[in-house]
Amino acid sequence: MRNVDYKRARHFQVDLSAFRNILEIDTERMVAKVEPLVSMGQITKATCPMNLSLAVAPEFDDLTVGGLINSYGISGGSHIYGLFTDTVVAMEVVLADGQVVRATMDNEHSDLFLWHAMVPRHDWAPCFSRDQAHSCQGIHEAHIYTPVRGTLKEIAEAYADSFVPRDGDPAKVPDFVEGMVYSSSEGVTMTGVYASEEEAKKKGNRINRVGWWFKPWFYQYAETALKRGEFVEYIPTREYYHRHTRSLYWEGKLIIPFGDQFWFRFLLGWLMPPKISLLKITQGEAIRNYYHDNHVIQDVLVPLHKVSDALEFAHRELEVYPVWLCPHRLYKLPVKTMVHPEPGFEQHRRKGDTSYAQMFTDVGFYYAPASVLRGEEFNGAEAVHRLEQWLIRNHGYQAQYAVSELSEKDFWRMFDPSHYEHCRRKYGAVGSFMSAHYKSKKRQKERGGGARS
User: How far apart are CA 363 and CA 88, in angstroms?
Assistant: First the structure.
């Protein structure tokens, strides 16, 4: 995990711990008003019994609304609704001078709203937000697991076909989709649609309560499709939303190597997962540097038509498996924000693209590279640097919660600074809040010693 020492570079700390309340769920307007520290676990616990959900509900219980607005909030439904920020309809934002303003897409602070809508890290704190909700259309989700074998290019094509029908029929687009690539020749695509309780309980249908503490970790369970072949089951909607929480995707295997064993799951599985905040507090500098050199945690956003290239590049440079694939729309906005579609994408109309949005994919790498597992040498800093350069050349983006090797020049090559700098000047952030690059850059002591830059 990335060093967060930048948080100590402040004159005083503002206590936001009380801002963790769901203020209102408006079932007529289909909007939820929440405070920034409200977690996804809180929201799904409140909305799912009402047969409602946020349009984008990212997977981990502890992810907060404020954190998701500040970063890349993504879920299995993002191929329809976009990133988490695309579902926000209004924000109350605290500026550098303490003033609170309400920003929407069409009021006098629309530039601030658009800036928040597409930025890897920002300089103001959202005080409240209103997020779009939608009907779940059922309390279960019919889930299809489909094994895929072939080259990485063929796996990428099968993944794209799972949510972009070749005949263009919108009725065939699933409500949820994700892919997991287990090796350079095997993967599993998973698609789901909302289903009623009556349908789920029909004779012959199988309901899988994946959220129970003793159940197999989801990524390992999905991998069984490679032996079983394609199969269908029904998963309670809230348990589907948080399917990766117990195992932290597959990082849990490195944190607790025996955590996936039945005896541990049955006796102690209720303890999972360890809190990310606790891991950050207890992670010393030596351990952090060890992970920087021998471990990869990276989320990168790439255009859908570049997924096969990204997988092939990552196999050569990282060889980290499993790999998570999750599609999302990247909308064309009135101004060029830090994260934006490829210029002229609407003219090509590639698979998944529309006139108003380009289809991207989050490609997630969270594990030790195969070379490390084999006991061979691996230079994490150089590998991440090469990945970043590939992203810059291919109009991709790196999630800035992870370790970044980007220089200031390369950071602004990846993330367009024009609208960002306009808003920093207009709203008084310059001289009060550090820039996004300073927050995410690697400190000297992370590079192997020396004074802090």
Answer: 24
Is residue 123 scored above 60 in pLDDT? Answer: no
Q: Domain limits of the chain?
A: 5-135, 140-285, 287-416
Residue with token string 């439904």: 77
What pLDDT, in 10s, does the model give residues 364-411? Answer: 999 999 999 999 999 988 999 999 999 999 999 999 888 889 999 999
Query: 5-135: which CATH architecture?
Result: 2-Layer Sandwich (3.30)
Strand partners, 146: 189
